[in-house]
Design brief:
The protein is α/β, with parallel strands linked by helices. It is 52% helix and 13% strand. It has helices spanning 13-24, 31-39, 43-49, 52-65, 86-93, 103-111, 125-143, 157-165; strands at residues 2-6, 28-30, 72-75, 95-100, 148-151. Helix 1 crosses helix 8.
């Protein structure tokens, strides 16, 4: 079974995904890391040199390559479900789990994050919160189509296992 973790940037898809994969003894795939590995560039570099549209095509290719693996935990990028037919692809080829968080929680996490994110640059405070609120309005229609929705602020691997496997 493929488990696709989705949600806004900073909601913890990668950190939860690593722990969940370890617990299930599944491979872990981080879509963003795979795009960087395959392209030889960081995501900010891809956005800067090739643009978001090219990044989204690379992202889609990596996502579709997950079909080669029967069991995996896959952390998607925050925008992955919102482009092309990516959400339909994930719904049809695995279990999708939305790590839902409030804009305030996301803003706090992203403001102090070490990793640079091309869509938010150096935004802080009210500007960052406003950006998150508006992007969540756009993306929520995709996210809420997930098979499972779980509160992301305090999610643990066991909770996801219970939701997905029913135990």
């Amino acid at each position: 079974m493929r488990i696709y973790l989705i949600g806004f940037m900073g909601c913890g898809k990668s950190s939860l995904g690593r722990r969940l994969a370890r617990r299930l003894e599944y491979p872990f795939i981080d879509i963003d890391n795979e795009v960087e590995r395959l392209s030889g560039s960081t995501i900010p570099e891809i956005f800067s040199s090739k643009g978001e549209e090219e990044f989204r095509e690379m992202e889609k290719g990596v996502l579709q390559s997950t079909l080669d693996i029967q069991k995996a935990v896959i952390a998607t990028g925050g925008g992955t479900p919102c482009y092309s037919d990516n959400m339909d692809f994930m719904l049809g080829n695995g279990i999708t789990v939305y790590l839902k968080m409030s804009p305030a929680s996301l803003s706090h996490r992203l403001e102090y994050a070490r990793r640079k994110r091309p869509l938010i640059g150096n935004m802080k405070g009210e500007r960052l919160l406003s950006f998150i609120e508006s992007k969540l309005i756009e993306r929520e229609e995709y996210y809420i189509r997930s098979h499972c929705i779980i509160k992301g602020e305090s999610v643990r691997p066991g909770q996801v296992i219970s939701l997905v496997f029913g135990y």
